[in-house]
């Protein structure tokens, strides 16, 4: 949070819901769409207009805004030079972003494969993960041909092209990630350590331009997708049980446990004896 | 200027809403008349009457790898409850193959669920568990947890060497099928400590305890 941007908001939204200026605020958390915005066009500070209202002022390359909680609907987004006075002469767009309730999106301002500025809407996978797992989403929004993604030196994703994504479910942990031209292993980005955190969708963007030698990684994380362990079995001997074994099988097992307890007590006693003798 | 006024308005309404909830019981139990704080919202303009477009700040961050990753949690390394004679090292664990929380076989070793919060986390419950007993190792220190009382002090030392003190808030023995695992492993809410072991009656056929002993503790000021 090294800086923040301004967004128009009606007073009724009260911070619980952020409604874009002039639009009806959404009513309940499960009824909203979440939208993050990533600026992935190198060297160009921009303004972002939503439905012709200035929403993100002086938005800088590599910055990530949001998530905003919005009423579902279609939003018209235009991206202008930062000195524009309105949305009438956009550098990108306008594009229509259809946002559905309960979904989570990231809109990127990015270069297409040929280096032309464009906008891309991604839907983020926020489905629940099994306990111990993390989700890694890799998105190609760079002016570059198809790439492979290497995880810990091995090819994990092949032939990913702009503006597409690949989603992996992995055991949680840090991986060393690198991006190389498809069919090669010589990194054009990285290697860099990426924490594929448990219960989290870690979204990595390859952005920038191969020709301009400013390819880079951006990262966005969506937490709270975890599951929990379903039990803690923390005892096996019955040595502190509040009940007694009361059937024949139980007597045998319980007897064994009691016997073990006696043996343990005897061992401790002997140790104490020998200690006392010293 | 507009931003400042809008922020204050939003804050005032938010505060009024908060105090409106929390102050109601105290007002009822007070002997002297105290003007209800939840009267405040009537003085603020309602959105319907005046829908100004205020300016608020939207969180924006750098998306660079070194600034925007989920930080690794700071592991707890040892736990001490002097009044119960507990002084144990803590291992960082994940899951057993059957979906249970993994635990060291030795009941003299405690285990921290490393995918959940740590004592250094901003929010959520740090879960530390240990076997109560073992056919190989005998009874473990956590057998004493059942005798903890409200206010019992627990000291957890994290990997940075810092001692973090907690006071027991509750000790419960809950049959295993009734344990709310979602709230045991809760990653939200206030920072707190949850200790878990087994206890209660034992099923001598299945060689398993029927209950978990759950100690909830909150940070001491």
From TrEMBL, chain A:
Residues 33-149 form the DUF4397 domain. The keyword Endoplasmic reticulum does not apply. The chain crosses the membrane at residues 251-270. Coiled coil: none annotated. Keywords: Membrane, Signal, Transmembrane, Transmembrane helix. Residues 1-28 form the signal peptide. Pfam families: DUF4397. This is DUF4397 domain-containing protein. It comes from Cryobacterium sinapicolor.
From TrEMBL, chain B:
Pfam families: Sortase. Residues 27-54 have a biased composition (Low complexity). Keywords: Hydrolase, Signal. It comes from the Bacteria. The keyword Hydrolase applies. InterPro entries: Sortase, Sortase_dom-sf, Sortase_F. Residues 27-76 are annotated as: Disordered. SUPFAM superfamilies: Sortase. Residues 59-70 have a biased composition (Polar residues). Residues 1-24 form the signal peptide. This is Class F sortase.
């Amino acid at each position: 949070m090294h800086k923040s941007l301004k967004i128009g908001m009606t007073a009724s939204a009260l911070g619980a819901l952020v409604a874009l200026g002039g639009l009806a605020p959404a009513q309940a958390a499960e009824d909203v769409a979440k939208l993050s915005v990533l600026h992935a066009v190198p060297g160009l500070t921009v303004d972002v207009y939503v439905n012709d209202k200035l929403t993100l002022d002086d938005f800088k390359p590599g910055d990530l805004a949001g998530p905003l909680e919005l009423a579902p609907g279609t939003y018209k987004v235009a991206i202008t030079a930062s000195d524009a006075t309105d949305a009438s002469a956009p550098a990108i767009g306008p594009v229509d972003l259809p946002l559905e309730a309960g979904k989570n999106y990231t809109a990127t301002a990015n270069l297409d494969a040929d280096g032309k500025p464009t906008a891309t809407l991604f839907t983020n996978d926020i489905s629940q993960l099994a306990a111990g797992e993390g989700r890694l989403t890799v998105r190609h929004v760079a002016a570059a041909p198809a790439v492979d993604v290497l995880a810990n030196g091995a090819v994990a994703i092949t032939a990913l092209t702009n503006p597409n994504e690949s989603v992996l479910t992995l055991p949680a942990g840090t991986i060393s990630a690198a991006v190389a031209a498809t069919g090669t292993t010589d990194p054009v980005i990285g290697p860099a350590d990426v924490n594929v955190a448990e219960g989290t969708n870690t979204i990595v963007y390859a952005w920038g331009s191969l020709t301009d030698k400013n390819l880079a990684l951006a990262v966005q994380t969506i937490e709270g997708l975890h599951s929990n362990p379903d039990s803690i079995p923390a005892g096996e001997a019955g040595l502190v049980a509040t009940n007694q074994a009361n059937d024949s099988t139980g007597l045998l097992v319980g007897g064994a446990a009691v016997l073990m307890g006696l043996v343990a007590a005897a061992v401790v006693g002997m140790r104490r004896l020998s200690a006392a003798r010293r | 200027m507009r931003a400042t006024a809008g922020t204050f308005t939003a804050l005032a309404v938010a505060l009024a809403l908060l105090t409106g909830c929390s102050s109601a019981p105290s007002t009822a139990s007070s002997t002297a008349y105290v003007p209800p704080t939840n009267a405040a919202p009537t003085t603020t303009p309602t959105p319907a009457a005046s829908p100004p477009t205020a300016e608020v700040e939207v969180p924006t961050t750098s998306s660079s790898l070194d600034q925007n990753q989920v930080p690794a949690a700071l592991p707890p390394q040892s736990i001490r409850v002097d009044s119960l004679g507990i002084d144990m090292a803590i291992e960082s664990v994940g899951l057993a193959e059957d979906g249970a929380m993994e635990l060291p076989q030795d009941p003299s070793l405690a285990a921290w669920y490393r995918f959940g919060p740590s004592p250094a986390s901003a929010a959520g419950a740090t879960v530390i568990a240990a076997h109560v007993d073992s056919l190989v190792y005998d009874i473990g220190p956590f057998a004493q947890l059942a005798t903890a009382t409200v206010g019992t002090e627990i000291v957890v030392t994290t990997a940075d060497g810092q001692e973090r003190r907690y006071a027991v808030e509750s000790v419960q023995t809950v049959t295993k099928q009734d344990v709310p695992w979602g709230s045991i492993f809760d990653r939200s809410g206030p920072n707190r400590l949850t200790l878990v072991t087994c206890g209660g009656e034992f099923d001598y056929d299945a060689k398993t305890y029927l209950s978990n002993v759950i100690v909830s503790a909150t940070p001491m000021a």
